[in-house]
Amino acid sequence: MKSLRRAVAPAQRRQAGLAVAHHIRQSLNLRPGLRIAVYAPLPSELDTAALVRLARRHRCRIYLPRLTDRRRHRMQFVEARGAMRRNHLGIMEPVRLRRLSAHDLDLVFVPLVGFDATGMRLGMGAGYYDRAFAFLRQRRYWLHPRLIGLAYSFQQVPLIEGAPHDVHLNRVITEKGPIKCNTGC
User: Fold this and answer.
1) Is residue 38 in a domain?
2) Stronger pLDDT, 38 or 43, i.e. the higher one
3) In this structure, is residue 156 part of a structural domain?
4) What pTM, to 2 d.p., does this model score?
5) What is the 3-state secondary structure (H, E, C) of the chain?
6) Model confidence over 161-175: pLDDT tens digits?
7) Which residue segment(s) compose the domain that 28 sits in?
């Protein structure tokens, strides 16, 4: 799946990012003050530039993940303002530390390698997102944030075997449109 994702040409990646932003505009109620987290994409990941522009036009508050503990695979969410730098994985992060708890986010747009209709997400393997949103496994208590995967349609697979620590997505948005996952949320 990673090699398929790497094979997407930069122009196609930008076009897919524009299509995803269009579907987000049509399917989600972006409004001023909404606290959203967006990832800074690696070269092979779906481009989020159009989504960030859309969120800024709607005056949403935008946060980016910042890795805080390499050994224990922990991250926090930091306001996307000011200077940026590359972390040890080559991902751009804000330098400033104006952070927000994962509990206080409204929407989180996450990258993925693969996904299935149940909302199971295959990431890069380090578990940063699963650790940050572990509290969501008790859905009867936590309805926010909603986790939304951003992917190319070819990244959908029939079934991903999950582990007890995995956190499910609420939906996935691809260049072909939104896919509501079977999470019940």
Assistant:
1) yes
2) 38
3) yes
4) 0.90
5) CHHHHHCCCHHHHHHHHHHHHHHHHHHCCCCCCCEEECCCCCCCCCCCHHHHHHHHHCCCEEEEEEEEECCCCEEEEEECCCCEEECCCCCEEECCCCEECHHHCCEEEECCCEECCCCCEECCCCCHHHHHCHHHHCCCCCCCCEEEEECCHHHECCCCCCCCCCCCCCEEEECCEEEECCCCC
6) 888 888 899 999 999
7) 2-66+102-180
